[in-house]
Amino acid sequence: MPAHFQNPILPGCYPDPSICRVQDDYYLVTSTFEWYPGVPIFHSRDLVHWQQLGHALARPSQLNLDGVAPSSGIFAATIRWHEGLFYIITTLSDQHHQRHNFIVTARDPAGEWSEPYVLDNAPGIDPSLFFEAGRAWYCGNRTPQQEDHRHTSRREIWLQELDLTTMQLIGEVFVLWDGQSRGEAVPEAPHLYHRGEYYYLLIAEGGTFHEHCVTLARSRSLTGPYEACPLNPILTHRHLGYNAPIVAVGHADLVETQTGEWWMVVLGARPYDGYYYNLGRETWLLPCTWEQDWLLPGTGTGRVEFSYPCPSLPRHRLPAGPACDHFDTPALALCWNMLRTPRSDWYSLTARPGWLRLALRPPTLAEHANASFIGRRQQHMNFAVRARMDFLPTTGYELAGLAVIQNDRFHLCCLCGRDEDDTVVVRLERRAHGETTCLAVAVLPDYNGTLFWKIEAHGLEYRCYYALQPEAWQACGAAVHGGFLSSTVAYGFTGVYLGMYATGSGQPSAGHADFDWFEYVGTAG
234, 296 in Cβ contact below 8 A? Predict the structure, then answer.
């Protein structure tokens, strides 16, 4: 019996996947929105086991996320390889809701990527690149030049040649397709492929939520005209209803293996305890076949499944990363992210070796700012987080602890600070719909500057604990229903992040919080 793999291949908030192959190696990237560094890069040799190599946008000079709103920032990226060079093209939506598309390149995907090549006269989002016969082509979406105002969400897919010397678009613009039907929302995320006598155009339609889908068109000429696949949408779960175990399926990319198999990566979400998906939109893998020169995703069922037989590739298992980060390396582990671009040295791994130090700065999580927060994706419905913190607040506005974040209007924090009587306390605070509520307060009369934290999730039930001695846990308030952290309530394109937070609550402070270690493990429930 052939070995099977389990989906999703990248659990947690890894939406809008794009993939390419270079000989026996596979590379994959996803969206990151307001999170920094931008565009994680993964490597695999069997399409099942993936290891992160780094980020394409890891320097402030490459990525200005200052003031961007939640779910703005970096939209879907496409990764391609051509004549020894990797290319990533993506969209930046800035704090003024202006969008521009740019390219970064690298010889080594695990090394440093170039400064951005910003494209002039390249409207739209989610662009892609196509290389053939020594030429490069840009493919994107845009508002039709002759816009029919009865269909305000209409877009068209367009193509133009890219000069690889100047990194600018040249020549004639070709309109390829405007999607499967006039009623669909925002045709986007186009990818082009050449197989046999046809060029294939794969796009996303229906928005990014429950009605999401994948559609296909083909042409004997790269520049068109393109005919729609009679089976469209070739992949969707919207007809399965809101009780389906996998929803919002869409935004796909294809890769052909060195053995001639075709596989698709696609985003999808796993709702639980109702129509909530706190893990966000994740990356899934499914086999594809061809029939009468049309693509059939999800061989056998036409759907995304939790398990399939493995690709016909040598298994390439990777060692599991450590569950606990002891902050004893010269740089942060690749799992960690920050909100927006850091503009100062507000965190340190060297000020106290073996500890992560966060400065108490004015920004808070309730702002579109780069707060002193370092977090990682929630990747399991059931998990346990533990951390040790050294922190001694000197004023009422100095706070530090752990946070569970969807965005600036929806998050949950367990923080140490001082109350009106100057007593050190632990507070459990929930922020929902932009309003902050204190759910519980616990006094720490014997506090000596060290706290142990624990957050556990059992489905949508989040519980927060603190301890003055290891494992001597005390609950901080009652369980909190975490449905408000799902994008189905909070809106947006991201999943939940968990991490360490310190703030001066709008006031300057010379203080800091030190974290000795942070542990994250998925649990059975």
Answer: yes
Task: Indicate the pLDDT class of residue 224, thresholds 50, 70 and 90.
Answer: very high
* Cα–Cα separations (whole angstroms), residue 292 to 34, 177, 215, 363: 42, 21, 16, 58
Is 235 in contact with 289 (CB distance < 8 Å)? Answer: no
Spatial separation of the C-alpha atoms in residues 464 and 453, rounded to whole Å:
8
Residues serving a catalytic function are: 16, 188
Question: What digits encode the pLDDT tens for the residues 89-127?
Answer: 999 999 888 899 999 999 999 999 999 999 999 999 999
**Tokens in use for 427?**
């507070």
Q: Is 238 helix (H, G, I), strand (E, B) or coil?
A: helix
Secondary structure element (H or E) that encloses residue 490, with its range: helix 487-490
Q: What is the pLDDT of residue 150?
A: 47
The closest alpha carbon to 304, from 190, 203, 212, belongs to 212
What's the topology of domain 324-522? Jelly Rolls (2.60.120)
Q: Which residues contact 55 (CB under 8 A, 6 or more apart)?
A: 37, 38, 39, 40, 41, 334
CATH of domain 4-309: 2.115.10.20
